[in-house]
Amino acid sequence: MYDEIDAKYERFLRLYQANQDRIFRFIVALLPNYSAAEDVMQDTMLVMWRKFDQFEPGTHFAAWGMQIARYNIATYYRKAESGIMRFDDAALQHILEQQEQFEPVKDQYLEAMEGCLKQLQAESREMLSLRYNENMKISEIAEKIGRPL
Question: Which pTM does this prediction carry?
């Protein structure tokens, strides 16, 4: 029994790790700030794990995750203050469909971007990572690496 649970957990982790960036980018594009996107991503991952038995092997894991994220985003907006712009379900569905259409192009773009990043010196890669992965301000990056602005 434990072997089955371990195997299921490993399958989920492999699929999740391979697709989490794509799902997170979808969430970030639809929410007002990075912190909200992180919260929705965490909720989405938990729902994905709970419903992993419902996932059909061989289908598009990221699309399945984005569908779950869409419901979590809708929940976020229902709970949010009235001043925040909201998307109705039809708009969210349209955005999801458009994103799925451009996934192959984005994959090619990301591969090209990774190739370019590999050509940079380590310090330059670190600065880009701090800016775009860690969402640090340029002044914070300069302070962290000990360089003036």
Answer: 0.58
Question: What are 68's two structure tokens?
Answer: 């779950």
Q: Return left, alpha or beta for 33; rule: phi > 0 is left, psi -120 to 50 is alpha, else beta.
A: beta
Which H helix or E strand runs over 16? helix 2-30
pLDDT over threshold 80, residue 59 = yes
The percent of residues above 90 in pLDDT, for the chain, comes to 35
Residues 97, 108: one domain? no
34 within 8 A of 28, measured Cβ to Cβ: yes
Residue 83 CA to residue 69 CA, distance in Å, equals 22
The tens digit of pLDDT for each residue in 12-55 reads 999 999 999 999 999 998 887 889 999 999 999 999 999 999 99
Name every residue whose Cβ is closer than 8 Å to that of residue 126 and which is 6 or more positions away in sequence.
Answer: 145
Both 96 and 114 in a single domain? no
CATH number at residue 40: 1.10.1740
138: number of CA atoms within 13 Å, CB side? 2
pLDDT tens for 76-91 read 888 876 555 566 677 7
Cα-based torsion angle of the residue sequence 123, 116, 25, 63 in order, rounded to the nearest 10 degrees: -140
Distance, CA of 109 to CA of 147 (rounded, Å): 31
